[in-house]
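Quick start: what a row looks like.
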Amino acid sequence: KDLRIGDKVVVQRAGDVIPEVVKSLIDKRDGTETPFIMPETCPVEGCGAVVKRVGSIHYCTGGLTCPAQLKGSITHFVSKTALDIDGMGERNVEQFIEAGFINKVSDIYTLNREKILSLDRWAEKSVDNLIKAIEASKATTLPRLVYALGIKGVGERGARILAEEFGTLTNIMAADFERLTEIADIGPETAANVVNFFAETHNHGVIEELRSAFGSFPVMEAKEAGALSGKVIVITGTLPTLKRAEAKAKIEAAGGTVSGSVGNKTDFVVAGSDPGSKYDKARKLGIEVLDEDTFKALLGIL
């Protein structure tokens, strides 16, 4: 609905859900108003991490330590698709935070039997099972660890892409914006989020505490160089003999990356019948277009 002051509409619906400010009622001001200035650092007590803007969104970069984000970051870190620590559901996470046992994700690894047994609802067997689950989580994979950190915009697939590209968390942390944007399917917004996350000293400190707790972080074995190593390929249209999934598997096995869209980073396009707009865009950009036979010859599978 429209927002009115008296008979004047000051906020109205624009589009499906986004309200539009129609006008400012200057005559309603009494002189006590002050302009809002976006803070440069997180205003939450105990945080103080840098506030970054990506697109139209401002956010705190202190994800692993910010008190306002603590419950969410811990719950994500221990979830099944991340470190998979069974026994640390949302209710138990809240209990540990309220007891002061966990103030950042690395504190999970300082929990001990005596601490947990001092809390309500915990019996010896459930405590022992949780301690075992925490210990077992140290044997995780690099993609799971990267995903568990909760970097804005980096989901499971993005975490795997980063792990495969860089091999170690140390290498990911050292990557700059330009290097990240060279990777297929890592756009500028995600690249900025990664850089901002690892630029925050709060996050560095927690990561070093995690490294100490783990003994060593997992690594990702480098892909063996193949005929398409480092190449970005787009498949479009219906190929005469290869199914789309089969062609994609062959590209990845040869060290290449399959992208869903044609752009400046595309090395070539494999086109079949009825290729559509991707073919047209490749031609416009001067990107080489291969038919199936040429593609097979490139891979040595004719």
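That is the whole record. Residues 32 and 86 are 53 Å apart (CA to CA). The radius of gyration is 25 Å.
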